[in-house]
Amino acid sequence: MPPTLDLGRTRHSKMIISPPRINLRRAASYHYDKGPLSATSSRFNFDHLMFSPPPSPGLPSLSPPPRKPSKGFAGYVRPRRVVRYILPVLGFLSRPYDHSLVSRADLPDHPAPILLTDSRGRTSWTVSIPQGSKFPLTAEQFADVCEKCRETVARVQQMRSQKGSIQQTYLGFLFDTTDSHFVDVKEAQQAGYLPAAPGDRSQDAVNTLVGETVEGGIPKPVCEKSLTFVLESDDAGLGKTLMMLWTAYGLAQKEGRAFFIDDSRWGYGKYMDIFQAPPREDCGPPPRHEMLPCPLEARHLVVSTWTAIDVFGETLVGAPSDDPLKRLEPVAQKNMFNLARLGHDALFRLNKDDNVYVDNRVRDLMARRIVPKTKGKQNGLAIGIHVRRGDRHPFEFQYRSSYVPINIYAETAREILEDKFNHTGPHGAEDAVAKKHSLMILASDDPMIYQASELKGATLAQERIKLAAKQEMKQPELDRNVMHKFHDEAFGWEGGFFSAMFWNLGQSSSSADVEAYKKRPSADAIRLRSLVGRAYMMDLAVLADASDVVICTVSAVGCRLLAVMMGWESAVEKGNWVNIDGGHPRLQFFPSTPLLFSNMGVLQVVGGPLSQQFSQLGTFSQIGVAVASFLFVAVAINVLQQFLFKKPNEPPLVFHWFPLIGSTITYGMDPPRFFKENREKYGDCFTFILLGKKTTVYVGPKGNDFILNGKIRDVNAEEIYTVLTTPVFGKDVVYDCPNSKLMEQKKFMKIALTTEAFRQYVPIISDEVTSYLKRTADFKGKSGIVDIPPKMAQITIFTASHALQGKEIRDKFDEKLADLYHDLDMGFSPINFMLHWAPLPWNNRRDYAQRTVAKIYMDTIKERRARGETGAQDIMWHLMNSTYKGDIPVPDHEVAHMMIALLMAGQHSSSSTSSWIMLRLASRPDIMEDLYNEQVKNLGADLPPLTYEDFAKLPLHAAIVKETLRLHAPIHSIMRAVKTPMPVPGTKYVIPTDHVLLAAPGVSATDESYFPQPDLWEPHRWEKDSPLAPTIVRNVQNEDDDEKIDYGYGLVSKGANSPYLPFGAGRHRCIGEQFASVQLQTILAIIVRNFKFRNVDGSDKVIGTDYASLFSRPLEPAKIYWERREGCQL
């Protein structure tokens, strides 16, 4: 019998010499901690432990170890899964390096995938690992590169217009990934994408690989393909690493790869302290920078516990398209089992001394079960029992917070003996002799298990390395009447393997930095860890080789390792591997228990109570099932509410499946179509769910009047729109102030909207348009193609700023400042009704633009006040000298913010409308010729400079604006908050205060009841004798007969009962509609004088509408063909 290696012989400040075992568990303290009642009791807890304790060494599952939480959101949500499910939306935020955009000198200084573009514009990719990088990479670097590889594959396939789901781009080990367009490092170097390795770097990884040396100074030729497995120190459990190692070896053999092991940062020390060297390869490892963590096609792969699942992929758990139940069948699992078995046969060779001990121990145990004088023909049964405690808890629901009781192990062993020998004796009687010579072989990570009465008489699997329990650590008897010097209490290995105690092995009590010690352990700590690993491995080796049957709990990876070590035939087909964790006590490995290598370990039985099944799912699966169940219940309740709990006094509710979301998506995709379709189903008044809010739509002239002319006590616009307008305009103006103050502000600004002012604006606008067309490169030459919406946006901002705010302000505007106004305009995104506060890209640009533009106005105000100007007559001068009621001066910041609001009012609607006008003219070149002829006929062949009075002679120009606004009203939805319950005249409906009212004037403007052939853009319909003229009784061109009302800023038309309200109605009617008409007609007239338009393809089609903003813009790009007229004035 070889001498026993006793940990009691080691010396350490936190370990007491206590032959023959050590105990790493703190004894009862001076704080009246009585300790656990029993280590085998289900009531046993660990509140008294100093650390979260060291694994049987029961083995974790084949899944990456949990990452250490970091600060912030990313520390609690796994980045790999976040990217997997939101990659189509946020992929652009984490794009890999694009080699077509960087030189070789600009390659990343850290490991990362990069995109490559060849001379034919084809995209491929490779992985750049800077030469000289420390090998192996850190665990975080490995995981990060694998993450980015997945994103890169998806991006490259998208760029190559290949259709596929996220799962199709999964980097699975045995899946076909040849379509990922990967270029290996060696080929990338030969093509010049990556720098060549300096000098002979062919075997610079030899020194870190287990068993690899350069013999005779002559390196071996580099392997054609290889797989290097990095043993990581972050995972205390040896079992998980071992299972991955074996499987990696089996996969390498299947792929025809050489196999290497790196142990440079393994928590258990040197690989060869526990095992013998792996089989030597005839070839050598590649240079370090060619060893890549992804993808599968890489010639030389490097795998760690952090990346194994990414690299091995669904091979270990079944193809993603497989029926999950099929994966539970033995046939689907046998291939995985056999891969691990290949690795076991090649790699599970204990160091020579331990191997000799195990062989002798196995022979001794097998000899004990032989019945004397039978020559081995009558044998007892050797039953191996593996008990895992510590930080590994069962899958069985009732034991998940404790452990499987010891009596279940004992009862299962007794049942096996009864079944084996009850009818195998003479004449079918009990074989008492064989039963007497049977034995139980016991291995556990908790020394207290060996003393359990239920397993009395069991033989230890091995006694070469023992772990001491606390009871065996004799404390000296002290006289309680005398004060004694305090001594730090003893630790014993009680309660099982806990990772925290494993990492603290060899650490002095004065040490505080556990993480630093974990990464840089002392030599004493490495020796102790190695002894723990050796004890664990010898336990498993003896159990697997000496036992006829093994009883264990499948939640421990050690249990799964034992199945692999026993072999498929013995463990599975003959049923000699018995799991007691979940289901029937005799539950065997197959077919009842599923996945050998699932992320949470082996799942439980498919049948049985639903709650039992749910408890056996992995964490991610449980979350998925919970979310799916919640959604199903929510949808079911939502549907039932719509059918069973209708409110007869409220407008009908548009049917929808999902609560909160409601009809948001269908409405947002195409509001006019949504209104039209639901009007046909429910009538003029109906309700739908918009972002969780009940929104009541009332369309038609009556609806327009009901909502837009609602009394201020009944409806409120400020509550709806302040979240949009305040970040754009600024504080204390428009909807960020009381309605009475807003009415005063509108009155201040109307000074710029008089007839006399319009007479001055026409020449200013004409000059701005002419100047812009002359200097813009897109209109150089005799003809060309132009994306018209961006050009019209710049023209409208320049004309509005000069006309409304004066030359001084206009001189500060250029294309850059016009872009700032565009960023302000994008602040009116519908999503900002809910997320106006969020740091989204467009909100960040909005806020920057608001601060920048406001500062320009504030600086101008300060300059004017410093100069003491009194003669200026522009709108800024007027606002600076205006006062609210009570002679309260308008503060400077309000002046600046009103200037922003005034310019936005004069720009954003005109920008979209002018773009639609040009696109419509391109689709109808005949109308453009009619406009040109109208100018020649009524203004003269020489086309003199435009004046305000000229527009009375150009009715078709006015009709163009009217017809375009009819079909393309800038705002498709106008909303109001309901302040008091509002009865709907002529109906039984009452709109409650938890609803939002929505008017859609565009619905009546495209209603056949008022406009024949409503979808046809025909400007001539506004001629009185046109067969397509509006059929309403009231003449829409004469507003003088309409009812007028003064809301505080002058008389305006109420617009009651009108089907045509492009500028709204009521107290919030746009005060700039006359300016918009003058601005649009002037721009139109100047362009018509100088250009002819048509569609690029010569068709009469018009591009679709972009409803992403509150304003109905053309989808971009919207290109048209232009041609200069003869006698062009530019």
TrEMBL record:
Its main location: endoplasmic reticulum. Heme binds at residue 1070. It is a single-pass membrane protein. The lineage of its organism: Eukaryota, Fungi, Dikarya, Ascomycota, Pezizomycotina. The keyword Heme applies. Pfam families: p450 (PF00067). Pathway: Antibiotic biosynthesis; Steroid metabolism; ergosterol biosynthesis. GO terms for cellular component: endoplasmic reticulum membrane. GO terms for molecular function: heme binding; iron ion binding; sterol 14-demethylase activity. This is Cytochrome P450. It is found in: Endoplasmic reticulum membrane. Gene3D superfamilies: Cytochrome P450. InterPro entries: CYP450_sterol_14alpha_dmase, Cyt_P450, Cyt_P450_CS, Cyt_P450_E_grp-IV, Cyt_P450_sf. One of its GO terms (biological process) is antibiotic biosynthetic process.
